[in-house]
Write a structure and sequence with these properties.
D-amino Acid Aminotransferase, Chain A, domain 1; 4-stranded parallel β-sheet; 37% helix; single chain
């Protein structure tokens, strides 16, 4: 029996596994797109806001009932920390593609990551805890939570402060659990990334580079459209970084290109991301490669990732494109040509038809009453 993939994530992680012929278990809220996918052989409900222990016990019950160890995939920081902190118990029933526990903790906490990167001479922007940011930083700066926080106000990932007075106002309104970092000038399109899988021997088994096309909001927003690139300098910095910190497993390294072309390392996320959907469509299916390695199966054949292949999240990207002055016809052409779509896939239409489209229709009908 081929081991299953137990997927704590969305369609951008489920799709590359399912299309590789790997049986998947969707760990997601009831009625969400992964639970409606043809790639999900079964589901484990993950109630939003539920205590982490509930998910842990559900995973342990599921794993104990399997004749062959599944591989546990995680796509968000909460699931990453849960799996890492309970790896001793989970490892009895699951293959765990995780970095070492101390490294996971250091990378998830932005202040600890900045200190780790500085110790290894990696090019991170000058960074301080907000309580220690009275001197030594050049303005403007950005302010962000120490860890990804659902309670963070608004939809932007960070807030900008142009003066010491503005910084103190943010501290007064948001507290001390904040990180302050010198702003690297330039738009979000100058944020590039290196996506890598380092196998158990320390060899880089697969990699590709990418960049943001659009985000919402336009400044410090979440990606709505991205594309594969061919950026040797970004890959070189990414390889240097993962070797310096001794990472094993998967990682996404966010890197910003300054106005003079200098690269600045912003963060390292040691987990699966939306990019693995696009990578698989472009020829580098890292989730499937990880599955083969952990389960002792032959590695799938990989090609070099195809530069220019694009991914988008249509509803949000339509808004971002309009804000950028992109007309409907041009955007529809981009939608048509995109290699990966977070919302709709003709090979697996039910997550869209029974999920997003049906829920949108119900909201529309309710609004007419």
């Amino acid at each position: 029996m081929q081991p299953l993939a137990c997927v704590i994530g969305d369609m951008d992680l489920l799709a590359p596994l399912g299309r590789a012929g790997i049986g998947c278990i969707a760990v997601a809220p009831s009625g969400s797109p992964p639970t409606l996918s043809r790639y999900a052989q079964a589901t484990i409900p993950r109630a939003q806001g539920a205590a982490p222990d509930a998910l842990l016990h559900a995973l342990l019950r599921f794993g104990a009932a399997q004749p062959v160890k599944p591989v546990l995939y995680v796509q968000d920081d909460d699931a990453l920390l849960l799996a890492s902190r309970h790896r001793a118990r989970l490892a009895s029933f699951f293959h765990l593609p995780l970095a070492d526990a101390p490294l996971v903790e250091a990378l998830v906490d932005k202040a600890r990551f900045a200190a780790l990167a500085a110790r290894h001479g990696l090019p991170v922007p000058a960074t301080r805890r907000i309580a220690a940011a009275d001197g030594g930083l050049r303005f403007p700066v950005i302010v962000k939570p120490l860890t990804r926080d659902a309670a963070w106000p608004g939809t932007a990932k960070a807030l900008r402060a142009d003066t010491p007075a503005a910084l103190q106002a943010l501290r007064h309104s948001h507290g001390d659990d904040l990180l302050v970092q010198e702003l690297i000038p330039g738009p979000e399109t100058q944020v590039e990334s290196h996506h890598v899988y380092v196998d158990a021997s320390g060899a880089i088994a697969a990699e590709f580079t990418g960049r943001k096309i659009r985000t919402w909001p336009a400044s410090f927003g979440h990606s709505t459209a991205v594309e594969i690139t061919d950026a040797p300098d970004v890959a070189t910095l990414g390889r240097r970084a993962v070797r310096a910190i001794g990472l094993r497993g998967v990682a996404k390294l966010d890197i910003k290109r300054g106005p003079d072309g200098t690269l600045h390392l912003l963060e390292i996320n040691p987990r699966f991301t939306l990019w693995h959907h696009l990578g698989a469509e472009a020829g580098v299916n890292i989730p499937a490669l990880v599955h083969a390695d952990l389960c002792g199966l032959p590695r799938p054949r990989l090609a070099a990732a195809r530069p220019g292949a694009a991914w988008l999240r249509p509803r949000e990207d339509w808004r971002a494109a309009r804000a950028a002055g992109i007309g409907p016809l041009r955007w529809l052409g981009f939608l048509r040509d995109a290699a990966a779509n977070a919302s709709f896939d003709s090979r697996d239409p039910m997550p869209f038809l029974r999920g997003e489209a049906w829920n949108g229709l119900k909201r529309s009908l309710a609004g007419r009453r």
